[in-house]
From TrEMBL:
Family assignment from sequence similarity: Belongs to the PAL/histidase family.
An annotated GO cellular component: cytoplasm
Positions of modified residues (2,3-didehydroalanine (Ser)): S144
Compartment(s) where it occurs, according to its Swiss-Prot or TrEMBL record: Cytoplasm
Identification of the protein by name: Histidine ammonia-lyase
UniProt entry keywords in alphabetical sequence: Cytoplasm, Histidine metabolism, Lyase
Annotated metabolic or biological route of this protein: Amino-acid degradation; L-histidine degradation into L-glutamate; N-formimidoyl-L-glutamate from L-histidine: step 1/3
GO BP, sorted A to Z: L-histidine catabolic process
EC number(s) given by UniProt: 4.3.1.3
Posttranslational modification: Contains an active site 4-methylidene-imidazol-5-one (MIO), which is formed autocatalytically by cyclization and dehydration of residues Cys-Ser-Gly.
Protein encoded by which gene: hutH
Organism ancestry: Bacteria, Bacillati, Actinomycetota, Actinomycetes, Pseudonocardiales
EC supergroup of this enzyme: lyase
Cited InterPro entries: Aromatic_Lyase, Fumarase/histidase_N, HutH, L-Aspartase-like, Phe/His_NH3-lyase_AS
Amino acid sequence: MEPVALDGGPLTTGDVVAVARGGVGVALTPGALEGVAATRAHIEKLADATEPTYGVSTGFGALAVRHIPVERRAALQRSLIRSHAAGAGPEVEPEVVRALMLLRLRTLATGRTGVRQSTVETLAAVLNAGILPVVHEHGSLGCSGDLAPLSAVALALMGEGQVRYRGQLVPAVDALAEAGIEPVALVEKEGLALINGTDGMLGMLVLAITDLRRLLDVADLTAAMSVEALLGTDRVFAADLQALRPHPGQAESAARMTAFLADSPIMASHRGPDCPRVQDAYSLRCTPQVHGAARDTVAHAELVAGRELSAAIDNPVVLPDGRVESNGNFHGAPVAYVLDFLAIPVADVASIAERRTDRMLDVARSHGLPPFLAHDPGVDSGHMIAQYTQAAVVAELKRLAVPASVDSIPSSAMQEDHVSLGWSAARKLRKAVDGLTTVLAVEYLTAARALDFRAPLTPAPATAAAVALLREHVPGPGPDRHLAPEIATAEDLIRSGALVDAVQRRTA
């Protein structure tokens, strides 16, 4: 795949995913490098000036009142990075590190930060070489930038700290040497420019949006399988009924569920006037309303992410006319809010899926299915404890839906007295996305087993394709088996996109 061009303009979510997950490289355009050099010229004029400029000739945060003499200003930048690379806890995922490196590089390429061309090129070279600075879980308050995570990257550019390179944990200086990259000796303004952005939380937002788009497609499918297995009706998903409440996400989910259930012999078997059921339970009937609201929330998050992917975030910032101005654009509130917002529908989509699963296991509500879908109820427990796993995950997702952004802990001697905690919101959203994957995997396994029990009636072509894919890896109904590997297999089919691909071929 061609490298992602960094020309100082906005990136797309696809660009971020390609670099973060796909290992695609980046290429700085000549125009971007020219802009970087032109802006650096303004900083050079200030570097020897006696008038204080924040980030160039003063300390940082509450120490901004300290005027730094000319001969100490390069040391100021190095000290900034060393002291701010104060993360703790486990390492974050490689895709998160690559995303935040890309997004900081994009801001540098706008020419609004005042770094040197050589520094921008070095960061691009490190990213393209596959060198991953060790970034720790804890250390960002989501304000003044993701300081500790980005400082870990800047430290590696200096040839200090630890990195992952070619599968090994090695000193940064050794990895740079092996890759033929000269360490950066930071000068005025550069340390601050490398760390003063919302790049970590934004990268995690973009990755979560990508995952949730896929998971909501899966949720529509597993819900349709459950409706079919429970002898529910698809009439409530009709387009004219959805149009009475014109939310776009709701219409999309309803249309997808209708397509998944088209031409189902199971559905046809109970459409006649002798069917005594007037209405399905909410967990079946209201699925488009819940899934659709989640889709609309993701769409809002995409709007915010798109704006951030066009932003140049630094403090101070260098304006086109050469002015160097302090600002508050590093505050993570816009990103933190939507990260927290997304955790709510994730929990709710999982919650309604768990209710559908439980219904298929309850002989009093499953309309003819065996208790717990067991082969020999009493001797076998079927999917009884798989639902326990779902319930435990849903309970955790509810805790993860508690917002981080409503909290704030003052720092830097009350100079930085209100923070976003957007990094924390992003970290818990990543856990929530994983939890939703598990919940949907259990519903997928359970609905497929329930559909098998409806034989000799057969499911719709689309849902039958979902069952057939699963049966390539997981056997059908029978005596109790070790279920944990089967749940993991279903998760893999969801994460890889294989499930959605298999079904879409039957509905295209």
